[in-house]
Amino acid sequence: MYWMKRTKIISFRLPLIVCLLTCGLLYCFSYLIESSFEKFSIQQNVSELNSVISSIERELIYFSPNDNRDELFQNILLILTGHHHLFVYIIDESGKILYRTRGPNLAVALKPANLEKIIAQHGTTISNLNKSSYRIAASRVIVENNKQYTTIVAVGRDLQLEFISRLRSGLGLLIAISCVLALIGSFISIYFTQKPINRLIKKIERINLKSLNYRIPTSSVPTKYISLVRAFNKMLTRMEDVFQRQRNFTADIAHEMRTPITNLTTQTQIVLNSARSTEEYREILYSNLEEYEKMSQMISDMLFLAQADNHQLVPNLIDIDLFNMLTMMCDYFEPLTDEKNITLNLEGNCSHIQGDKLMLGRAISNILSNAIRYTPQNEVITITLSQTSEKRVKIVIANPGKKIASRHLPHLFDRFYRVDESRHRNGNDTSGAGIGLAIVKSIIQTHKGTISVESDDKSTRFIINLPTAI
Question: In a 3-state reduction of DSSP, which class is residue 133?
Answer without folding.
Answer: strand
